[in-house]
Structure formats: C-alpha cells, structure tokens
Design a protein that fits this description.
The structure holds 2 protein chains of 2 kinds. Chain A has 15 helices and 21 strands. By secondary structure, chain A is an alpha+beta fold. A 7-stranded mixed beta sheet of chain A has the order 8-9-10-1-11-19-12, with helices on both faces. The relative contact order of chain B is 0.15. The two termini of chain B are 19 Å apart. Classes of the chains: A alpha+beta, B mainly alpha.
Chain lengths: 517, 327
C-alpha cells in the first residue's frame, strides 16, 4: 500500500476515529474509498487515465492561490501532503509523525525518509517549513492564510534535515485534524511564483505539460509510496457538467469529477458509465441556518420546533434526487471526530406544533439563493412541510452571484438556506462558531461556549479532546443554529472497470488508480 | 458593381475602429459592474472584509476604474492582454490558442454553411412557389426554429450515444489542436451549420426569388434561354453582391453561436473560454476574450458594409427572411 506505517500520535488518533466511525459506516453506507475503489475488474498496470473536472483553463499550479477544482486535482497528484484524510481517518503521508508538546503549543513534524522531489532533491525539513510559511502568509495565500492563523510562522524551527518544530500562538490539540488534514501540500524551499509552472513536488505523478485547459502528468517511478499503476494522467477542464458526463459516456474520458444528480440518474441503466458516490466524507452539507442572536430564534424552542418539523428524507429525495444522506443538524458526518452517539432526529409534527404554539410563532421568512443547485427548492419544500404544522414560511429569493457581497447581512440573517463543504466536526466548530470565528452565521458564541471551545481545542490527549468535541456537538445538536438536513454526495462518472481512486475531501487521488484490463 | 470611394471605405474602417473602442469601454465597465466580484467569488464563505481588502490590493483592483481601463487599453495596444487577477497567468497565450481553435471551428462551419445555404437558396429561389421551394422552405424554417443547443443535444444523442460514430464531446489532448483529431469537429460544426445553413438558405432564397421574378429574367425565359443560363447570366450576377453580404454577416453569427456550441461540446475555443472566465469572475480574461470576439464580429459587419457599397449602394440586404421582399 502506498501509505506506510502511521506515527504513534496519528495512529492513536486513527484507531479512535475508526472505533467511532464503525457506527457511522452503517449509517453512511460505503465510504469514499470503498466506493471509488470497488472497480469491477482487476487492476491493470499502465495506460493513461483521462480525467475531466470543473476548473479554469488557466488555473495554474500555484496551491497558495488556486481556487478551481481541476487545478487542485492536478496539484494533489504533484505535491505530496504531510497528512491526508482517508475516508474517516487521518493518515500520515509525507510526514512520518506529527507530535504535540505537553500543552499542544508546539508540534514536531518528522518527515518520511527517502521522499524525493521530482528533480531528485530529498524532501527536507526546510521544504516543509517553507511550505507552511507560504500557506500561513495571508499576503501570499489568501486562500489558506486563515487556516494557518494560529501558527507562529516567525518561530518555525528546523531542527535537522527531517525534523521541523511548529510553534503555535495558542494551544491547538487539533492541529492535525483541523489544519494539516485540510491543506499540507509540500513544495521545494524557495519556490517562487515563476516556479509553479514546473509543478515540482514529491507526489506520485510528475508534470509533463500544462497547456491551456489541460495538464498532462506522468508516473513518478521514484515515488516513496511505490510507483503508481498508471503511466499517465490527463486533467482537462470541462465547465459544463452535462458535457463532463457525456465525455465519459461517449468514451472520451475515464473519470468525470462532479456530475449533477439529474445527470447521474439519466445514466442509471447505461453500460458505458458508472456513477460513484463520494459518501458523506466527500459531500456538501446542506442546511437551513438559524441565527440564535436574532428573533425569534433566540428562543431555543423555535429552533427545536423547526428541526422537528422538517422531513429530511423528503428533502434528500426531492432536492438531491436521493443521491445523498440525511443530516442530523451537525456537520462532519463520515469524517474524523463526528459524534455518532447522538440519535438521528426524526420528524415529530405534534411536538413541533406545540413548541411553536408555546413560542407564539406562526410566520417566518427564510432567505434563499441558489448557492448550490436546488437551494431555493429546498427552502420552498421546507415551507410546504411547515404548512402541515400551521407555520407560514415565506421564501425570500436572493441572487446567488451577489450573496456574499453583503457580508454583514449574511452574518445577521435570522434564517437562511445554506451549504458548507463537509469537513471534520472539530474544523467546522472551530471555524464557524465561537467569538473568534469570522464567519459565524448561527451566532453561537460567548461565555461558556467560548470557554469550552478554547479548552477543547487546547486539549492534547486525543481521547479527551474528542470527548470535549463530542460534548460541544451534543450542545450544538440540542441548542445550536444549524439545521443540517442532508449531505449532497459528490457524484463522479466513471468508465466501468476504473478503480483504486481514493477521494480526499472530494479530490480524487490517483496513486493507486488503475484502468480496466 | 461599383468600387467604394477610398474616402467612404476609410470612413467605414474608422467607424469600425471607433465602434471597437466603444465596445472596449462597455466591456470594461460591464465587467466592473458584473454582479459578484472576483474577490468575494474566490473567498466564498471564507470571506472577511479584511481578507477581501487584502486580496483586492493584491489583484490591483483598488485603483480607480478609469486608471485600470487606460492601463489595460495601453497593454492591449502593445499586444499585452494583461495578467489574470485570478490565476496570475498572462492571458495572451491562452486567448491566442483558443482563438486559433475557434477559427478552425468557424471556418469549417462557414464553408459548409456557404455551400449548403447558397446551394439550397438558389435551388428554391429560382422557382418561387414551386414544390421544391416549398419543401426547402419547410425544412429550413423548422431548423431555424430550433436553438443550437437543442440541435446539438439531439446530434449527440443520435451520433455519439445511439450510433457511436462520433465523439460526444470535443476534448483536445493537452498541447495539440483540434485538427489532430478531426472527428471531434464534426458534431460542433454540424450544430452550427444546420442552423446557419438553414438561415442562409432562407436569405439567399429571398434574394434570388425577388430577382427571378424580375422583368429581365422573365424576358430571358420567354426568349427561350435554358434555365441554367437564365440563372448564370441573369439571376446570379444581380444576386452575387447581396449573397456575399449575407455570408459576411455569418461571421458575427458564428461568433455568437460558438459560445453555445463550444460549451455544449466542451470545445476548447474562445467562446468556452469566455464562458468559464465569466463564471470565475476573471475580469482580465473576460475582457481579452470579449474584445477579440467583438473585433471579429465588427470585422464581419465591416466587410458586409463594404460589399453592400460595391454591389448596390443604398440598397439594404434583408436582415431576416421576413424582410426578404426587397423594394
């Protein structure tokens, strides 16, 4: 297998996650790896896998600033990562171990021996330190600067060729799950804006060419995890999702990332294309967000009533055409650290009715824009479901293009239809709740909650920290502002027999991918 | 036929250049006022006012619009279309590459449209009201009523999926051009040519029918001249100028039609580039691709105008079949 032994620290975390996730597997069905890996034929060595994805024809290979899918797919094959998500586990990749000090104010990253960049240089601590400094500098990386905000960049220390110490501005016991697992690509020390076109990394594929609208990659025989099975990979930008699906159906591509639920359904009986579902680990969480700082959602009973009146399965069936999972008002399903002990909330019309009567609420307005396909439809369906308990919900439709222009407005909207890329619970809670959050649309913050969040993040022991985050999730499940009704799974169209593709937060990793014999 | 005076031709060219300049201003301003800016688009739910301001400064979007425009126009005149704010890559090379691909698509479609459109137009128009005229009119009317994307979808369903003869999408291997895999051109060209050819046939039919009903043609027929000679000596010479003008006006049509067809087939042309640039709020790329497309369209109009001068000054070519009855 490509991933060698995990470090003591990460192994501990992984085992725990695995135990917790055992429960999820039943709910979530097949994970991404099982789904994507289950090819119908045996692995074949060689060949060229042609992948199509949404992106920009000039996306480039600069991980600090890239925003488009196709570019990231190419970059995740080129640049190695320190750690990565594999289904609901965090596994080490380019890092051999990532260990905290006693109070999680500094972490030590040990780099795998024998990893080499495509130009032959060994991957060293200096390269890792340089990469972290680049990601952490908001002037260099507008995309990831915030993610690395707690890293004390100025005091990064290279101890020896394979060891780098990462001091933090404040204790973060969750650095691996919440930060490194999100983004930890490594590129050579001194890489400047002129060098990105060369795409030099230590990943399983090296760059052959990057022309307008397409990137060609070739097998890296020196890859530390063993040479990939494929000889070549092409990543082409195809903007229209119907055209992406058609490209596989018509035999011009082997793997199309992200097709629509309607498209997926239209090829259900086709012998030329299979739809692989990403599972909740590779999904968009879909929600209605209630702001607890605004009326009438200050009243916890109103929030409870809405969570009880919603028919989640109907939303998944109608809006996602059944190609997703029902949500339980929390983000992070199928990923490390999700609280699987909480019961699935189900519809209870009577209780919803009595809670609303008690609160004296008969009318609400929800703001909705098609930020994701079907967002407005979801809000309309909610309104329909609410009528059954005598609640009138007016859907106020907003244009999607300008939705975030009124930033303060988004943060203070009492009730809105929304989505988040599904990320681990600790990441979601750290990023989107509490007084420190710059994008807290539920308004859950202050007092006890802030204290608990800060102390949960600072907890060093994995089991103890997970317990603290479980408590936070229980609180949010009970009293928070998210009404997560479902997870829209990523749907990839695949030529039958293509296998071994592993999804890492919706990005296909091709180190172990193969074509049909 | 008359040759336009050099003065008149110069005035037309100068007008076209002025128009292009005006288009460049409109394009630039339109991109500025387009809903959603690249900064909020790029940051999405991670947006904060501070981060937004930071990225804005990084992208040079904090200068006054007039200054940004002049800087951009200066670059364009020197052949530098600027560097994409979103991707930090110069847009010139990709625009040139995509323009080349679009020219291949448009040229192939143009030839097919010209042959089919003029051929069927003559065939139908030479005998207005005859059975063959009615048959051609019925078919062309049907085809012009169906939008390109619907035609394209039907063509894909039939020729790519049902019969498996042709590729469903026009993916070009990175670093090569569409001519290295001519099969990928067939369906996009057919989508453009079916609509364009039907439209052109209707236009040509209108022009020819009018002339064929004229007294000199009637006289030639009464005199017993064989039909092919009537066409060649009396109809075609009068119709040639107007037909050439119709063909020149195909250029702007192909510019617009390519937008739709390139998206449906994922054909790597300028139209698809423009569409994805708009989606990504990539202002510099929208401006570059938009300006090139506008220049080509204006060039088409200019040629049509010059031809009109040559063939019959003061006589307007019918812009749509409904106006086909000339004075």
């Amino acid at each position: 297998m490509s991933e060698r032994q995990m470090s003591a620290g990460v192994r501990r975390r992984t085992v725990l996650t695995g135990a917790l996730a055992a429960g999820v597997a039943g709910v979530a069905g097949c994970g991404a790896d099982a789904g994507a890996g289950a090819g119908s034929s045996s692995p074949r060595r060689g060949g060229r896998l042609r992948l199509v994805a949404l992106g920009s024809p000039t996306g480039g290979l600069n991980p600090l600033t890239a925003t488009d899918g196709a570019s990231f797919i190419a970059m995740f094959q080129l640049y190695g990562q320190l750690v990565r998500l594999q289904g609901d586990k965090v596994v080490t990749s380019l890092a051999e171990s990532v260990e905290p000090n006693a109070d999680a104010t500094a972490w030590t990253i040990r780099i795998r021996d024998g990893a080499r960049f495509h130009d032959g240089r060994a991957v060293t601590a200096a390269d890792v330190a340089y990469s972290i400094r680049q990601f952490g500098d908001p002037k260099r990386s507008s995309t990831f600067g915030q993610l690395y905000a707690d890293v004390d960049l100025a005091n990064l220390k290279v101890h020896d060729a394979r060891t780098v110490e990462v001091p933090l501005r404040r204790a973060r016991g969750d650095l691996v799950d919440s930060v490194l697992a999100q983004m930890s690509l490594v590129f050579p020390d001194g890489t400047t804006d002129r060098d990105w076109v060369k795409g030099v990394g230590s990943g399983p594929f090296r760059l052959v060419s990057a022309a307008g609208g397409g990137v060609t990659l070739a097998r890296n025989d020196e890859y530390w995890g063993g040479a990939p099975l494929l000889d070549e990979v092409t990543v082409a930008v195809v903007v229209d999702p119907a055209a992406r699906l058609n490209s596989v159906r018509g035999g011009q591509a082997d793997y199309a990332v992200d097709v629509t639920p309607a498209g997926a359904r239209s090829v259900a009986n086709s012998a030329d294309v299979q739809i692989r579902r990403g599972g909740p680990a590779n999904s968009m969480g879909r929600s209605f967000e209630m702001n607890v700082q605004t009326d009438p959602f200050r009243d916890a009973d109103v929030r409870r009533a809405l969570r009880l009146l919603v028919d989640r399965q109907q939303l998944v069936d109608n809006v996602l055409l059944g190609q997703g999972q029902v949500g339980n008002d929390l983000y992070g399903l199928g990923l490390p650290g999700y609280n699987t002990a909480l019961p699935q909330r189900t519809r209870d019309v009577e209780q919803a009715r009595s809670l609303l009567a008690k609160a004296g609420v008969t009318r609400l307005t929800i703001k909705a824009a098609d930020l994701q396909a079907g967002t407005v439809d979801a809000a309309r369906l909610l309104a329909e479901q609410a009528r059954e308990v005598g609640l009138t919900i007016t859907v106020e439709q907003a244009p999607a293009d300008t939705y975030f222009n009124d930033y303060a407005g988004v943060l203070s909207t009492p009730f809105q239809a929304f989505y988040f890329i599904n990320r681990p619970a600790a990441t979601m809670i750290s990023t989107y709740t509490g007084s420190d959050s710059s994008f807290n649309i539920t308004g859950v913050r202050g007092g006890d909650f802030d204290r608990q969040l800060v102390s949960a993040r600072a907890t060093v022991d994995d089991a103890a920290r997970r317990e603290r985050f479980n408590e936070l999730q229980r609180y949010l499940w009970d009293s928070g502002g998210d009404l997560v009704w479902g997870y829209a799974e990523q749907l990839d169209a695949v030529r039958p027999g293509v296998g071994g593709v592993q999804l890492n937060q919706s990005v296909p990793l091709l180190a172990t991918a193969y074509l049909p014999a | 036929m008359r040759v336009p005076t050099p003065g008149r031709a110069l005035r037309l060219v100068a007008g076209a250049v002025a128009l292009l300049l005006a288009v460049s201003v409109v394009l630039f301003v339109a991109v500025q006022v387009l809903p959603g800016d690249p900064v909020t688009q790029a940051l999405g739910s991670t947006y904060t006012p501070e981060r937004g301001a930071q990225l804005r400064a990084q992208l040079g979007l904090d200068a006054p619009v007039a200054e940004q425009y002049l800087r951009w126009l200066g670059g364009v005149l020197r052949g530098d279309f600027g560097t994409s704010a979103v991707t930090r890559v110069p847009v010139g090379p990709i625009v040139a590459e995509r323009a080349g691909n679009s020219v291949v698509l448009a040229a192939a479609a143009f030839v097919l449209i010209a042959v089919l459109g003029v051929g069927f137009g003559l065939f139908a128009g030479a005998r207005p009201g005859s059975g063959r005229d009615r048959a051609v009119s019925a078919v062309t009317l049907t085809l012009t009523a169906v939008p390109e994307f619907a035609l394209a979808t039907v063509l894909v369903a039939v020729f790519a999926f049902a019969l498996g003869w042709l590729p469903a999408v026009s993916l070009v291997a990175p670093g090569s051009g569409p001519l290295s895999q001519p099969a990928i051109l067939v369906l996009p060209v057919a989508s453009l040519a079916l609509y364009g050819g039907a439209y052109t046939a209707r236009m040509v039919r209108g022009i020819v029918a009018d002339i064929a009903a004229g007294p000199h043609v009637e006289a030639a027929r009464i005199a017993g001249l064989p039909e092919h000679l009537v066409l060649r000596r009396h109809v075609l010479p009068s119709a040639a100028g107007s037909i050439a003008q119709v063909l020149a006006l195909l250029v702007p049509y192909l510019v617009g039609g390519a937008l739709v067809v390139e998206t449906v087939f994922a054909y790597p042309g300028l139209g698809a580039l423009l569409a994805s640039a708009v989606r990504a709020r990539d202002a510099v790329q929208v401006e570059a691709a938009g300006l090139v497309l506008a220049a080509v369209a204006i060039a088409g109009f200019l040629v049509a105008e010059l031809i009109q001068d040559r063939s019959c000054p003061g006589r307007a070519v019918p812009m749509r079949p409904a106006l086909g009855r000339l004075r």
